[in-house]
Amino acid sequence: MTSSLQTPDPNPGWLSEFALAETRTRVPILYVEAVPVRVDTSGQIEHIGVLLRTSPATGEITRTLVSGRVLHNESLRDALQRNIVKDLGPAAFPRLPATLVPVTVAEYFPFPGMTPLHDPRQHAVALVYVVPVTGECNPRQDALELTWLTPEEALSSSLLNDMEGGRGLLLKQALAWSGAIV
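Given the sequence above, the corresponding structure tokens read:
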């Protein structure tokens, strides 16, 4: 959900840094988050992609998921596609779900304790999806690396606790939803 991409984005319909900062103090910001996965021929998850990046909110190195804002007049499908390409590269070849019903809806607050999810910059709502990718993934923008983990490795407490803003909870929910864990 956090990104070091500066605004205005190359997309001219976006907000200036000042306007975005002002908006963040007044209304929740809508995000999409994706758990990139590699699946076998029967559709079972074999690996989960987790990004390593420097948090723009805290400056710390953390693990996170693919995430980004939904732009004004942008469909959820387009936002999901754009943010996956932004974080994983144009050759990731995501297979977006046929329906855009999210795995879960995440709500982040700027102060800790209201929910397990925290973003010190803003109140935000994120629609979370599990998205198979079939192509070559190369981290882009502010991501330092992409690590592919088995479901068992992804559930290690050290990894889950290292995930930015409480996203370890979202990863566990996504894996449970997909049947990768019981």
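Residues 76-88 form the longest helix (13 residues). Try to locate this feature in the token string yourself.
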